[in-house]
Each structure stands twice: as C-alpha cells, then as structure tokens.
Amino acid sequence: MEERYDFQRVEAKWQKVWEETSLYRVEEGGKRPKYYVLEMFPYPSGDLHMGHVRNYSIGDVVARYKVMRGYNVLHPMGWDAFGLPAENAAIRHGIHPATWTERNIANMRRQLRAMGFSYDWTREVTTCLPEYYRWTQWLFLLLFKNGLAYKKKAAVNWCPSCQTVLANEQVVGGLCERCESIVEKRELEQWFFRITAYAERLLEGLERLPGWPEKVKVMQENWIGKSHGVEVTFLAPDGTAVPVFTTRPDTLYGVTYLVLAPEHPLVERLVAGRPQAEAVREFIRRARQMSTADRTAAEREKEGLFTGAYARHPLTGEPVPLWVANYVLLEYGTGAVMGVPAHDQRDYEFARAYGLPIRVVIRPPEAGLEADTLAAAYEGDGIMVHSGPFDGLPNREGGERITAHLEEKGLGRRQVNYRLRDWLISRQRYWGAPIPIVYCPRCGTVPVPEGQLPVLLPQDVAFKPSGESPLQSCREFLETTCPQCGAPARRESDTMDTFVCSSWYFLRYTSPRQEDRPFDAQRVNYWMAVDQYIGGVEHAILHLMYARFFTKVLYDLGLVGVDEPFTNLLTQGMVLKDGSKMSKSRGNVVSPEEIMRQYGADTARLFILFAAPPEKDLEWSDAGVEGCHRFLNRVWRLVGSLRRELLEVKAEDAAVRAADRELRRLLHQTIKRVTEDIEERFNFNTAISALMELVNGLYRYRDDIPAADRHRGLLKEAVEKLVILLAPFVPHLSEELWHLLGHTTSVHRESWPAYDETALVTEEVEVVVQINGRVRDRLRLPVGLSHERAREAALAQERVQQWVAGRRVAKVVWVPDKLINSVVQ
RNA sequence: GCCGGAGUGGCGGAACUGGCAGACGCAACGGACUUAAAAUCCGUUGGGCCGCAAGGCCCGUGCGGGUUCGAUCCCCGCCUCCGGCACCA
C-alpha cells in the first residue's frame, strides 16, 4: 500500500466499477421496505456549486445508510431544465437554449458522477425534453378539465427585465425574485391554477407533517394567511351594496367611514355625476400606474379621496362617508374596508391625515380612552362602549353577538378569507413547456387533445435582444387548426412557469420511461410518498407549496395514493465564505471541481458534512478541508499498517485484557453514536467526530500494545466496522479499504453494524464529587452503587472532608454512576 | 411592527431528559524525526490568581434577575444578529 492514498486513482476506479456493476440500480418490489430519498433537482446552470455539493452529500449519506439498513432505496437525480438563463444565453451568445442546456447537463452530470453519489441514473429525468413536458402539458389539461386551470384578465406582476409576468410568490418586496428589477402592474389576460381552492387543505395538511421543520410550516401558514371574520354589507342610498370584510365586528359601532380600493368596480358607479367624479378618476389613474414597489415602499403615505357618496350604517342607520384610498387592496376580502380609527392603527393614521372623526367603542380594562387625546389606535381587548345594546360587554363576546345579530337580519355573514392568491402560470417566454391551448374564432378556447401532445417547441426560431418570446412571432407555431372544428386557429404562445415542471418530477422518477401516462399507478404508489426530501429553504413557499398542491389534486383525481408528497423535509443551510453567500459578484466562490482535483470527492464530502449540522449555515474553510483530508490519510495509514496482520486472522480467542475491553467498548459506543446521530437527527458532524475518536483509539491501541499481544480478532472487527461506518460518508476510500482487507464484494452492500449493549457496560465509572454544586473531586466507583454506599465513598474522600469539616451535611444528591453532590450547612 | 431561529474559546462546533462546559476538528505555540523542508508523531492551549512544585482557588455559555442541591439547558425582563412576512382589514 502506498504511504498516501491516491484519491484520484481510487475514486476513478470505483466510480467505474459501480457503474459497470449497476450498483445503484433499483427496482420496485421485493421483501425489503421501500425508502424514497430525494434531493431537489438542480437547474443546469453549467457547474455544480457548493450548495449542490452540500445538498447531495447529505442526501447520499441518507441513501447509502438506508440501503445498509436493509431498505429498498430510490435515490434519483434529474434536471429542472427549463428557464430563463438558457434563453438569455441564446440572446447573448447565439446558442440555442436546448444546446446550452444539454451541454450544461452533460457537464454537471459528469461532476455529480465524480462526486460518487449513489444515483440510479437510469431514472434520470429532464424537464425540457418532449418526453417529459408532454406530461406537464397533460397535467395542465387535467387541471383545465377539472376547472382548476382558467384564464382571466387581471392586474398582474410584470418584470420588465425578464419580459414576463410573475406569480405572487415570485415577487419579493416588490422586486423580481430572479433579477431584482422593480415589478410593474399590468392588466393582462393570463392562465392561473386555482390553488386557492386548496387553501384550506394546504393549511390543514401541514398539521399532518411532523417531519417538516416548524419554520417552513409557519412560513406556509403565513403565506396562506387564513383569517376568520364577517362580511358586513353597507347600503348606499341608491341601493348599491358595499360589502366589507372585517375581523373585528366588535368595533362596528366605531365605523366613521368606508374605504374602497381604487380599482374597485363600484367606485365608478358611486362617483358618476358627482362633483368629485373627475378628481376621483384622476386619483385612480395615478394609483394604477404605481408599481408594486412604490405601493409597498417604506414610507407608504396613505392617500385617499372622498367620493361624495354615503352609505348607511347597518346597525345605527347613520350615514357613513365613502372614500377611496391606496391602502386598500382590491384582491383581498371584498376590496373595501370599514374605517375604525379608534381601534385600527391604519385607519387611525388615515383619519388623522384627513380629519375624519374618531369614535372609541372599546374601553381598555382599568383605563379611560378619549377620542380627542388618542395618540394611537387601541387594538387590544376591553369593554364595549357607545355600542347601543352591546354596551358593557367584553368585546370578544360582543363581537360574537353583533355577528349573530347581523346574520339574523341578513346584513352580514361569517366569512373565512385567505391571503393566498391563485397561481399565475403563464410566462411570455420561449424556454418552457407550451401551454396546450388553441384559440379558435368559432369555438373559443380549446384544449389540445391528449393524442396531439406534446405541443412541441419549434426549434428554428430567432431570439430577439428585447427578450420578447420568439413564439409570439413564430408563424409555424402560432398558426394551427382548431382541434374541434378544423378552422384556422391560433396557438397560445405563452409557456408555463417552470415551477409547474418541478411540481410533479418526484412522481416521474418512479416510472421515468413510461410512454403512455405521466407515471405508472402501481409504481408511483409503491414509492410515494418521498420519505426524506432535502433542499434549500429558499423553496419553503414556492416549490414546496406548488408540489403539495399538485399532489393533492392528483390524489383527489385518484392518480396517486398520497395527498402529501414529502413526509420528512430537511432544509439545509447555505454554504458561506468569509461570512457571506458565495457569489460571482463577491468573488468568494470556491469551485467544487477544484476541491475535487486537489483533495478528491471524499474529502469534499467529509468536510461539508463535518463542518456544521446540515440545517445550519456552513462557513467554508480551506484549513478545515485540509484537516479532513489528513483524517482520511490517517485512516488509510491505519489500515495499511495493520493489513498484513488482519489478513491472516483466523477465529482466535485470545485472553481479553483491559485494553481489549476498552477498544471493544469504544467500537460499540461509536456504532451506537454514529447510528443515532444519523438516524435521529442527521447530525453528521457529530457522527464523523465519533469516527475520528474511534480512529484515534485504534491508533492508541496499535501503538500501546505490541503486535504479538494484540487481540487480532477484535482488531479486525474494529477496523472492518470502522470502514463500514465510514462508507456512507466517504464511499470511495471505504470501498478501496474494504477490498484491501480481503473482501471481494462492495462495502456498500454490507449491512449496517449493530452495537452490542453488553460491550458498552463497564465495571467502574468516574463519578464527579460536588460540594454545593461545585466540582471538588472525582472518584472511580463500581457501577450500580447504592446512594448509601456512594455517599460513604464520597464523604470518605480527604478533599471532601476538608470542605465538609465543621459544617453540617444537609443533603446528599446521588445521580447514579454520574455525580454525587453534598449540600453542606 | 408581527412571526420564526440563533447568540458557547482565536475559529467551525460538542454537551442526549437540568448533572464534569468546551468532545471532535482547525489555528497557534513548544518539542521529536530530518542536512533541510514537506509529511508524520508527541505535548500545551477559555480568562484571572496563589504556589518552587504537586496542586489549588475564583470568574466564565449575549446582558439583568429568578427557580433549583445543581442552569448552556427551565421561567421573567432586556440586547444583538439572521431568516420570513409586511397596509391582508
């Protein structure tokens, strides 16, 4: 054996062998229980980055570990291959998006193989291939047929730089999630998926996901934003009903005005013919022009205008002025709100700015509240005042009563509202799955029949510098015939949001070459749900909610047997360098390929697993990588130095001495720790440190005990089990060592070692001796001592005597085999 | 503002159910081997103090309090950082 291990040779050698022997190929069925490990598939940007390496190293440990635990493990990989960068490359460098994507995939596939991940590559899935997007289109049609895909004209988010519309989820603080341009509002007719129909199910389902991080569940909960309230109807004198939504019916008597969103359809009717009409119309025009960013800007000056109209208060009959204001959103609730300045901070600010009256109707406990001196709205609980027959009631109860009263009189009804909006899936771009719809002058909107799928992207198109989709001017694509009547018709030129493609890829992996269906029912039900899903937290809302939505729809339609796709979710932290995220602009990118070249894949994997627990951010450290590499060499030399000795071992039962027992205990303790660290908490960093300690222990044993005196059988067990325990983390080195130890089958086919409880027990333990909770001494005591005996032993100690001298021992606390604490005086 | 999460040596991080704070690794320093270097191996390494030494004492897990024989861990109040949401009525 060489002095240093030649990682380049070893890694290349085993990657080849694994591939030739199809080591990672999986089939459905068999006696072993199934286990589906999935890592979020990458966008083929060109090169693997450290985030990928981390994500996939974590997944690979889980996959290999589960195989060794006797599971039939599905561990696939694929490509989220549609998307804007490919199109931008086409515009800038004149490469066709398909070519660009193919090249990137080839390169990244090579890099993934070089990392030694245990994927079943026969199941590889690529979303931009017709054999895949055909089924994305099929699923679109399925949603369409079930009323879950529809087209509507709406004010939508438009990114001027990406030249396309965006879903709500893709607008972050008024900026485009991708390019951070300011997003504009545009009135456009677009395709939507009716995800709001599943709002309640998506919310309720979270409760059945104990294996998800609380953080992600809370984020989704907030995004769905359920709130209970009452829809109250105010009537204008001309009979126009102005419904408002409120969660505070208890403050109904405090209403001093109503506000409508500028875009509210009733506004025109209310102002028509009034002196205010022109001013209001101008106000609406200005509000419309404002970008989302402006409207959500930090200062957010509340602006509004009186319409001249009044409505009648449903309980008091008093006239209430109707306003329009920019702080009311058309999309939420009824697009109109009641203004209660005394008990809502926004209303308070608006009322103060425009001199509207303030009426206190909730009195805080033990304090007065005067409208004139009010410095801010009082939003807490209290006793109702100035509320007619409801005076004196606690506000919660009063709210209930008012609601009941309104319902009785037909003036309002209980209502549940969600913040979640329908998912806008149209994209005005080329590199995506075409929406399979044809517009016929006679038949209208016609779905492309299933038999005619896929609607292929035309290959030969010209990419314009403006970014405008070439599909919009591609006659061969646009011009078609109506599938219903055969008349000339026009194809939909928009493509689907790439999140549609990634909303079902985990189903396709179960039967990736299925030609007549998106997936095979039997196979999908064998593998689903994904037992462990791993990816970045940036998808907490977007991808993870869309995928849940798709799964629920398919479940309802009987296509899959589960309604939650991912049973357990692990969101891994970012990889940082010098305290911030690696990025080209910061110039702090560490290339995985470079690390592999210098240290090998095993070192890269080991470091990234060792440096931090998976869910935390990880600070890249060249010195740390160096240290991991050193450790692997240390393992190599250990095995190298003992190999001859171990190869000759026959069944041998030497006398077991203290050092042997010590080694045996260390070994089994390590098995226990590594197993529990992986199994219970995915704490690979502590699992690895346990393995380091085992290696240190083996060195000590080797150096302290002369070769002739070593218990070779035990030593062999320890070294072999060490190699097996290392296998999920550093698969190449482990495989090489395994074979050097005389084995001819793969270490990755070995069973995970079990630990022997009896090996863990010791006769003696070190017990901490405390006086008043402070450590004063240590004591070696036999295991399982009684309180009485331990107390005697402790008090007999000279050091304890010194501390106790002349004082009364009030109490002695005995934590068996760990600690004895005497409380004195 | 609201909702999450986190603050531990020079650094990354450990500490299981309230029981030895700092495992493991990095860095640093000292030493061995070497003509030299690399590699490797051994030792020291939270701070302060007492002691020739063996050894011992005090302080220490963001800050201030509390509960407890005993708190990194539980409770109350604050500070800082990170993430999410942000006129959602």
Task: Name its key features.
four-stranded antiparallel β-sheet, Isoleucyl-tRNA Synthetase, Domain 1, 825 residues, four-stranded parallel β-sheet, Isoleucyl-tRNA Synthetase, domain 2, 27 helices, alpha+beta, RNA-binding, flat
Chart the SSEs and their pairings.
Blueprint (H helix, E strand, L loop, with lengths): L6 H14 L13 E6 L10 H19 L3 E3 L3 E2 L4 H10 L3 H18 L10 E2 L3 H16 L3 E11 L4 E3 L4 E2 L2 E2 L7 E10 L5 H8 L7 H11 L2 E9 L5 E6 L10 E4 L5 H6 L5 H13 L2 H4 L8 E9 L6 E7 L10 E4 L5 H10 L7 E2 L19 E2 L10 H15 L2 E6 L5 E2 L1 E2 L9 E4 L3 E4 L27 H4 E3 L6 E4 L3 E2 L1 H4 L3 H4 L12 H7 L2 E7 L5 H15 L9 E7 L2 E3 L2 E2 L10 H8 L1 H10 L7 E2 L2 H26 L10 H24 L2 H21 L7 H15 L4 H10 L16 H4 L3 E8 L2 E9 L4 H10 L1 H7 L4 E7 L3 E6 L1
Parallel strand pairs: 1-2, 1-26, 3-4, 12-14, 26-27, 28-30, 31-34
Antiparallel strand pairs: 5-6, 5-9, 7-8, 9-19, 10-11, 10-18, 12-15, 13-14, 16-17, 20-25, 21-22, 21-24, 23-24, 28-29, 31-32, 33-34
Helix pairs in contact: 1-24, 2-19, 3-4, 6-7, 18-19, 19-20, 20-22, 21-22, 21-23, 22-23, 23-24
The chain binds one RNA strand of 89 nucleotides through helix 7, strand 11, strand 15, helix 11 and strand 30.
